[in-house]
């Protein structure tokens, strides 16, 4: 394998010293970029875009060609797993993801297969290899999956939900059915992430978009416990290098200490917590990734710079910080403002890494 030319992202995740704070953006390949919209139009739609290894590679590299980002993220979606389980994923314009078949009963859960990445998700494995080879060591490649709880939410609700009525009814009324579903998902996600690692992903992130909607006790039982099982089952070293794991629970600020106890290397933070405070809470146990409000990118470049400076100052000196947004970049952001954000992180962070 080609040697990595820029490994500051992997170093920061492992709390090793870096020259400047590494930065990437969740959803960095997406609709705010005109070149992404052009590729999607060429592919026909989002599903065709992500299911073609060549197109997936093309759009993964687009933000890297524009900005000096410190990591690439596989272009795919968390809902590839429910799709491979037979639910029939499709996207309704303006309405987000939908499934042809929705999980409603204990029998539906019992009939669900555990997915095998090579047999059922070969297009993702191919995309990882294609992207890794095209990157040629420029920056590390991040693989990802959804958390079991977040995947279950889409599978039971049938799409994006406002009130989570069906999934919460299942959780409270039939906890054993809920656990059976989460167990199959945890097995599928573990095998999927290990497949991505074997094919070239150099770090992995688990996206728990909806764990933050649970009660404090339910989060530990229905979301965190399954993410811990995944972390326990992951390949942690490949090609002679550690493969860091990042856990991101949106609205997960309440549970940082418990998340830090899972064995993950880093925690992703949304913008609602103060990153300095989070650092004091987790101590030396994990690195932190985040956490600028994506809406700050609607402001003028000098105001974006001020927000970046504030977050860097809050984190303070030393290792263990990967800069990111607190959630995905939105389609309405001016690409020039994303550039100003990335530049500000690199320029303003050098002072926090000088070794005495
Ligand atoms: O970060 C990246 O650049 C990698 C690609 C990526 C996508 N989805 C591409 C995508 C990643 C990491 C995801 C994860 C994902 N997908 C999550 C977890 C992260 C989060 O945002 O909380 C979730 C919940 C999904 C499910 C999903 N996929 C939704 C709700 C939507 C529709 C929302 C929207 O923005 O329209 C998608 C579609 C999707 N996935 C798009 C992209 C770029 C937009 C599709 C398009 O081009 O129209």
How would you describe the overall organization of this protein?
The protein has 16 helices and eleven strands. With 356 residues, it is α/β, with parallel strands linked by helices. The protein has one domain: TIM Barrel (Alpha-Beta Barrel), CATH 3.20.20. It has a seven-stranded parallel β-sheet. α10 (165-173) packs across α11 (175-198), α11 (175-198) packs parallel to α12 and α15 (301-315) runs parallel beside α16. The mean pLDDT is 97. α15 (301-315) links the parallel β10 and β11 (321-325). Coproporphyrinogen III is lined by residues 26-31, 40, 46, 73, 75, 77-79, 96-97, 144, 160, 207, 209, 328.
* N-to-C SSE string, H for helix and E for strand: HHHHEHEEHHHEHHHEHEEEHEHEHEH
Low-confidence stretches: none
The number of strands is 11
CATH topology: TIM Barrel
Tell me about the largest β-sheet: 7 strands, parallel
CATH class: Alpha Beta
Taken from the alpha-carbon principal axes, the silhouette is globular
Structural domain count: 1
């Amino acid at each position: 394998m080609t040697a990595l030319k820029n490994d500051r992202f992997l170093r920061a995740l492992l709390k090793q010293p870096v020259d400047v704070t590494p930065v990437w953006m969740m959803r960095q390949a997406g609709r705010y970029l005109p070149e992404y919209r052009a590729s999607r139009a060429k592919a026909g739609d989002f599903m065709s875009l992500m299911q073609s290894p060549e197109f997936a590679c093309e759009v993964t590299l687009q933000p890297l060609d524009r900005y000096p980002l410190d990591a690439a993220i596989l272009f795919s979606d968390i809902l590839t797993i429910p799709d491979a389980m037979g639910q029939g994923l499709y996207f309704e314009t303006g309405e987000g993801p939908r499934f042809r078949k929705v999980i409603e009963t204990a029998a539906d859960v019992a009939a669900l297969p555990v997915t095998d990445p090579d047999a059922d998700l070969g297009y993702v494995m191919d995309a990882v290899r294609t992207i890794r080879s095209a990157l040629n060591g420029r920056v590390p490649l991040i693989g990802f999956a959804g958390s079991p709880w977040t995947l279950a939410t889409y599978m039971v609700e049938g799409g994006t939900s406002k009130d989570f009525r069906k999934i919460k009814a299942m959780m409270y009324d039939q906890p054993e059915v809920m656990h059976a579903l989460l167990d199959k998902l945890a097995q599928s996600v573990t095998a999927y992430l290990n497949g991505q690692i074997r094919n070239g992903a150099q770090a992995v992130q688990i996206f728990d978009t909806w764990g933050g909607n649970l009660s404090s006790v339910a989060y530990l039982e229905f979301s965190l416990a399954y993410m811990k099982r995944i972390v326990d089952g992951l390949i942690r070293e490949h090609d002679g290098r550690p493969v860091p794991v990042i856990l991101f629970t949106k609205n997960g600020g309440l549970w940082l200490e418990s998340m830090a106890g899972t064995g993950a290397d880093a925690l992703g933070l949304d913008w609602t917590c103060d990153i300095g405070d989070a650092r004091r809470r987790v101590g030396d146990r994990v690195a932190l990734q985040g956490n600028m409000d994506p809406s700050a990118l609607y402001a003028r470049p000098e105001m974006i710079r001020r927000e970046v400076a504030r977050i860097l100052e809050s984190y303070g000196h030393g290792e263990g910080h990967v800069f990111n947004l607190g959630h995905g970049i939105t389609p309405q952001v001016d690409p020039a403002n994303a550039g100003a954000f990335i530049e500000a992180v690199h320029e303003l962070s050098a002072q926090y890494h000088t070794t005495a």
